Amino acid sequence: MSPEEFRRWGKQVVDWIADYRAGIESFPVRSRVAPGEVRAKLPERPPERGEGFDAVLRDLDEILLPGVTHWQHPGFFAYFPSNATGPSILGDLLSSGLGVQGMVWATSPACTELETVVLDWLVELLGLPPHFRTDAAGGGVIQDSASSAALVACLAALQRTGEDVARRGITRRHTLYVSAHTHSSLERAARLAGIGADNVRVVDTDPDTLGMDAGHLDELIAADLASGAVPTMVCATIGTTSTTAIDPVREIGEVCRERGVWLHVDAAYAGVAAVCPELRWINDGVAEFADSYCTNPHKWLLTNFDCSALWLADRAPMIEALSILPEYLRNAASESGEVIDYRDWQVPLGRRFRSLKLWSVLRWYGAEGLREHIRGTVALAQEFAGWVRDDPDFALLEPHPLALVCFWPRYPDLPVEEANARTHRVLDALNDSGDLFLTHTKIDGRTLLRLAVGSPATERRHVEAAWDQIRRAV
Amino acid sequence: MSPEEFRRWGKQVVDWIADYRAGIESFPVRSRVAPGEVRAKLPERPPERGEGFDAVLRDLDEILLPGVTHWQHPGFFAYFPSNATGPSILGDLLSSGLGVQGMVWATSPACTELETVVLDWLVELLGLPPHFRTDAAGGGVIQDSASSAALVACLAALQRTGEDVARRGITRRHTLYVSAHTHSSLERAARLAGIGADNVRVVDTDPDTLGMDAGHLDELIAADLASGAVPTMVCATIGTTSTTAIDPVREIGEVCRERGVWLHVDAAYAGVAAVCPELRWINDGVAEFADSYCTNPHKWLLTNFDCSALWLADRAPMIEALSILPEYLRNAASESGEVIDYRDWQVPLGRRFRSLKLWSVLRWYGAEGLREHIRGTVALAQEFAGWVRDDPDFALLEPHPLALVCFWPRYPDLPVEEANARTHRVLDALNDSGDLFLTHTKIDGRTLLRLAVGSPATERRHVEAAWDQIRRAV
After folding, report:
1. Is-contact A285 A250, C-beta < 8 A?
2. Which residues carry this modification: N6-(pyridoxal phosphate)lysine (chains A, B) (predicted)?
């Protein structure tokens, strides 16, 4: 495809996306296809001859779109938001157009240096501690996801135990601490790193706040130490996936410091809320105690996937765990020690120019625009929570400080299992309507509906319509 | 940014990319900035107010471009190619525009089903065995990189040893087998998975072919077994990074089968060459012996990063190693067992609609176009190798069956260390010229220059000019 052909087709693709976004409310939010339905419409065999890009766009409309769940739809309240805004799409397009590799500084210096700058900007925007900046001992890096960030943190934590796991492998029993509400990626990190799921300890949570019980954490660590294990990492969560519960980072941090255990803070969803000074309390204790901290601009901060920000208080053990320098990557800049080679900060070797999209977002919206987005979505969620609270047919899970509201229809005459089944039928009916998409979670044996506000496309009228529909469905 | 604003700015970004590509030869291939130079030109602090996208494009031109190494330049002969063609950029743009998550089938069915289809197409296009197809016991998945693919293979291999590493962690000494020419990502996978670098055995290579010595592999496995270790995975490489050497997969596979060890085949660069039937010999033994196989369309097959294809002969141990199902991801489709949830096939949880770019490439070029690209770049490299061979001032590394040529200037009067230093000075002078970019490797203590042809922008005149400049530089 020549540059001129790209110019022509590129503008058609831009038009396609603009039209798609402008008309997104005409689609059912959740795809209605059955398993295998999309596949059955696609050719069994690859094309022998090339085709025009119009054929791709035609099949996108006719075959693929019915199989797409529209995450950017204003009625998408499921999971957590996955904001893919205009400036982020354009930043990502520039990354594709440049087509450079940023595995080491020397392979494209701007790719590395812009990443450092925007992550330092984000430290300031979120009120994170200055030692997370790369000009201190720490530093930030863009990961593909909070799962990979957790794995990198876990590898750094293993290295810091002094067992030299990178060289000798796992030779003792290492333990990792989570709560029942910690994201499953932490157990996954333990499996991947050779720690094993059996060595993941589940710390009790406070029945009211659903936050981790620091006292129980300390007991578990003590018991593991007594049995000869190496307590390696604790994960505290700021904004759990289930309900946005917030672990007491400060109390957990004190235990970690006392016991010499790495503290990873997973704020994948909620951390970006700290662009608003009035929400910075969620990060209490992070500055003093976090060894690593992760939050995802690709969820709620207007930047399209993948863009997960990971910071470390001390980057040395991570680099020790991950750095290998084969001859064909040797270069004067790396050997000078004056540059960052982000390949030593992540699982893969290759890397896109991902900072371009975050840079585009930060510049297009500015700090003001980011705060407005967070405040606006939190306000809508709080308004929705008020409606739920005032309705005797519903119960509301407290607290709900951010933009996720968990609630359930009261069925006072039904045993919990039957009430849960009925809640699931309500959920299915709502999602089948095509007007909105909610997901669920389970707390203390009870099925809860989750409504997460977060798309810049979602206006008050969409939340009102959702509430109206939910009330009619129960 | 409204859909209409996106339409306007999007077309400007498309124009920017088309102009960049049309004028790419006006840039020095390798960036000339010094460490910190780009960073120093960027503001210390994030913007408080939002700005127009024109400000982003202006700073891209003025601040970032001087710090970019132009991987899509026709004079880029370094590392391996990283093709970012028009249709792949547009497919990726569509992925950004849709902004969907494909972590499980239910979160966007088309995202999963198109991926399955295009990877099945690729099985046919590359002549890979039908048991790699998802409708058999195996299956293909797009990973971000061959490094992550190697890690996934390693985790599956660990699981298949019967030690239930996912649950119990690493409790015995596991060993992994590579050659000195295997990509460093394999040692990295061993570190990440808790096996440890010390348990990576380096198998001898044949001094002529640089391929792994299957007899020595068998000896090492036997010795490890005798010492109580668990031989877990062998990595055979088809097209090493250093010199595109090809390990004897069939002989290695026979050892692996006999010994019950997982065989991973890393064909990251070279595997895609098998779109040409006359090059399918490189995959000899894969059909019979490979437990996992990886090749990167994002290198030489016209698809922009990230798009690394991984296939497994049996997906079960991988899924056993990686699958965790939290409540908020439970859904009827997953529980029916009728669908694929690719989240269980990779390190991260979230995933982009990456198959769109591969689909766009396969349709735009067709099998014919892909073969033409591979044949054209191989022919240019072979022609270049001929010029080197015929020049008494140069020595050529044989064989060079693909599109990488390794060679060195003969300095018959210099000891090898001095000759190497001089070769490095030649390399620096060439790269400083801005006309071309080569990298180097080291074989048997000798520094070799690597010239990798692979960009669709590279024409015969660029290779001729490179040769002319190289001859003048020695």
Report:
1. yes
2. 299
Whether B342 is in a domain gets the answer yes
- Given a cut of 80, whether residue B327 has pLDDT beyond it is no
> Model confidence over B175-217: pLDDT tens digits?
999 999 999 999 999 999 999 999 999 999 999 999 999 999 9
Question: Where in the sequence is the domain holding A244, given as residue range(s)?
Answer: 102-350
For residue B83, give Cα distances in angstroms to A193, B251, B316.
Answer: 32, 33, 33
Distances (CA, A) of A449 to A401, A427, B401, B455: 16, 8, 59, 51
pLDDT score recorded for residue B410: 96
Chain A nearest CA to B88, separation (Å): 9
**CB-CB under 8 Å, B322 with A101:** no
Domain count, chain B: 1
> Residue A212 belongs to a domain with what CATH number?
3.40.640.10
Q: Specify if B142 maps to a domain.
A: yes
The dihedral over CA atoms of B236, B241, B246, B252, expressed in degrees to the nearest 10, equals -10
* Residue B469, number of CB atoms within 10 A of its CB: 15
3-state secondary structure of B452: strand
pLDDT tens profile A57-75:
999 999 999 999 999 999 9
Nearest to A68 among B100, B169, B360 (CB): B100
Task: Give this complex's ipTM.
Answer: 0.97
C-alpha B56: how far from chain center: 31
Minimum distance, in Å, between the CA of residue B301 and any CA atom of chain A: 14
Q: Give a yes or no: residue B170 inside a domain.
A: yes
Contacts of B185 in chain A (CB under 8 A): 349
pLDDT, residue B333, reads 83
pLDDT in tens, A94-106: 999 999 999 999 9
pLDDT at position A337, please? 79
CB B94 within 8 A of CB A17: yes
